[in-house]
Amino acid sequence: MKTNALTLLEEMERRVEENQPVSPAQWVEAGIRINMLVGDMDNQIAEFDAAITKLEAEYIKQDYPQAKAKILARNDIDYGAYLNLKATRDRISQFIMLAKKRAETREF
After folding, report:
1. Tens-of-pLDDT digits for all 108 residues of the chain?
2. CA 77 to chain centroid
3. What pLDDT does 61 receive?
4. Which residues, 6 or more positions from 84, have their beta carbon under 8 angstroms from its beta carbon?
5. How far apart are CA 103 and CA 108, in angstroms?
6. The model's pTM
7. Backbone angles phi, psi at 23, to 5 degrees
8. Which residue in 38, 15, 14 sits closest to 92, CA to CA?
9. Is 104 helix (H, G, I), strand (E, B) or coil?
């Protein structure tokens, strides 16, 4: 089974919810591993961004105003999935930052 960043994030969330002790080294290790595996998610976000931009350009070429082109482009893709992916990526970024802070504060 292939491990991904979201799986590791969910595992750490489960450990926190179950009040399992997590050492500073484990926080850092989880942050490092998640950061290394988040590339696929970044690639998916980039693909969504490129698709939206391409669709917007096509609508603008058809003489739609920019605001309407943006709305139409978002309507042509699974925009909810895109927003969910970005929110998850933001959550992962916050986790990595907090894992570092948690490790720093637990060491002292």
Report:
1. 456 787 888 888 898 899 998 888 888 888 888 888 888 889 999 999 999 999 999 999 999 999 999 999 999 999 999 999 999 999 889 988 888 887 777 555
2. 18
3. 97
4. none
5. 9
6. 0.76
7. -75, 160
8. 38
9. helix
User: How far apart, in Å, do the first and last CA atoms of the chain sit?
Assistant: 37
Residue 25 φ/ψ, nearest 5 degrees? -65, -35
Q: Which amino acid belongs to residue 49?
A: D
- Look up residue 73 and give its two tokens: 């482009």
7 Rama class: left (phi>0) / alpha (psi -120 to 50) / beta: alpha
Q: Which residue has the tokens 């979201």?
A: 6
